[in-house]
Amino acid sequence: MSNFSLPTLHRHTLKLEGETTMISQFFVLSQRGDNIVFRVYRGDVQRGSAEIFFRKVKFWKEDGEEEAPPVFNVDGVNYFHVKVVGLLFVATTRANVSPSLVLELLQRIARVIKDYLGVLNEDSFRKNFVLVYELLDEVVDFGYVQTTSTEVLKSYVFNEPIMFDAARLPTLGPAAIFMHGSKRMPGTAVTKSVVANEPGGRKREEIFVDIIEKINITFSSSGYILTSEIDGTIQMKSYLTGNPEIRLALNEDLSIGRDGRSIYDYGGSFGSGPVILDDCNFHESVNLGSFEMDRTLTLVPPDGEFPVMNYRMTQEFKPPFRINVLIEKAGPLKAEVILKIHAEFASTITANTIQVQMPLPMYTSRVSFELEPEAFGQTTDFKESNKKIEWSLKKIVGGSEHTLRAKLTFSPESHGNITKEAGPVSMTFTIPMYNTSRLQVKYLQIAKKSKTCNPYRWVRYVTQANSYVARI
C-alpha cells in the first residue's frame, strides 16, 4: 500500500486505500480544454461534465477571484482538480467526500502515470492511452481507490510504455526545474520511466535525490523581511534493481523544533545548530532510529518517485533576491515606477524563468517601459484588463542587478494616493543547484553485494518561489 505522511512532526500517515472516498469520473484536460483521458466509474454524472468544468474554470469570476478554487460545485456535482505541468487532473462526484482525500488522490494518480510514462504531457498520454487506462482501472474500481503504489501496480499492469523523446521537451517542461542556464543537468530522472528498460534491454543503475524548496517571503516597504518560510521536500526516484538499502546522511548539526529538541522524546540531544527545522515528516519506509542517532535516513526505496522527507523552516534565512520599488510623481497625471532586483547568491549560480508582476491603480491608462541597454532576454507588458505590469527575465546570474523603469499615464478622473493603490510586487523564479535552508545531503550510500556494479548517484537542489512579495 502507498502511504504518505501528513505534514506533522509525527509519523501519521494518510491512507487512501480502503477509505470511503468515492469518485464518479476521472478525466485529464489539456490547457485548450481537449479531453486527453476520460474514465466513467459510476454513471451518475452526465458525460458533458468535462465541458462544463472547463468552461467554468476558464471564465471563473466568482467571489472576486480570477482563478477557480480546487473544489467547487455546479448543479449538484462536485468538481475537484489539480494542475500538473499544465494538465488539469479532474475528478467528479455527487457524494459528500473529503476534498483533501480526492485532491491527494489526483496528485497520486499523476505521480503514478509519471512513473510509468517518464514524461507527463499531452503527447505521452496519447501515445500510451492503453497503458494509462489500464493503470486507472487498477487504481480505482467502481469509484473506490484500490492502490496508488507504483510498486504494487507492477504486478497487475502488463502494457509496456512507449517512450517519449526527452529531447523534444520544451524549455518549460517538467524537467525545467533542473536546468542550469541552457544546459540540462545530467541524467534527468523526470523524463524516465521506472518500468521501461534502456535501449538494448539493459537497465541503467542510478538513483536520484532532489531537494526541492519552495520559499515564502514578504518584504516591508523599506526592504525588511516581515515573514519568511521554507517548505521543503527530499524527493527520491530509484532505478536500482533488487531494491537495496539506501543510507542518506544529512547535516550532523540538524535540529528539529525551534528549541532544537529531539524528534522522539524532545530531550534536547542535539541542541541548536545552523539548520533548524520547525517540523518534518517521513515516508513510511524510513528508519527513524538511525536518523535520531546520526541524522542518517535509512530506507529501502519502493519503485517510483516518492517524498522521503517533508520539512518546514521559519528560521531566518538569506533571501535569494532583494526587491526595491520606488514610485515618483512626474506631473499631475504622470508617475514613474522604478523596480530593482538584486541577486544575493553566488555568481556561479543562475536563476531561470523570473516573472515580476505589479498591480497599478485602476485609473492607469498607459504605460511605457525602459530597460537597461544590456537587458537581453527580458520582456515587458502592461495588462490593460487587470492593470498589471509584467516583467519577464529569462535568467539572472548571481550578484547581478536589473532595473525596470515604467512611466505611467493616468486618466483625468479623480484618483488618490498612488503609493497606496499600487502593488504589492510579486515575483516567481526557479534557481537550480541552490539550497536556501542549507540542508544538505552529505553522502548517499547504496548497500550493493556486487563490487562490479557502481550505480550512478545524482543529488540535485532547486529553490522556487511559492510567494515572494514586496510591499510598497
If you had to describe this structure to a student in words, what would you say it looks like?
- By secondary structure, the chain is mostly beta strands.
- It has 3 domains: 4-153, Beta-Lactamase; 205-317 and 434-470, Mu homology domain, subdomain B (Immunoglobulin-like, Sandwich), CATH 2.60.40; 321-432, Mu homology domain, subdomain B (Immunoglobulin-like), CATH 2.60.40.1170.
- The protein is built from 7 helices and 29 strands.
- The strands form 8 sheets. It has a 9-stranded mixed sheet, covered by helices on one side.
- The chain is globular and about 75 Å long.
- The model is unreliable at 1-15, 167-188 and 260-273 (pLDDT under 50).
Q: Key terms for this structure?
A:
Beta-Lactamase, 5-stranded antiparallel β-sheet, 9-stranded mixed β-sheet, 41% strand, Immunoglobulin-like, 472 residues, mainly beta, 3 domains, 7 helices, disordered N terminus, 13% helix
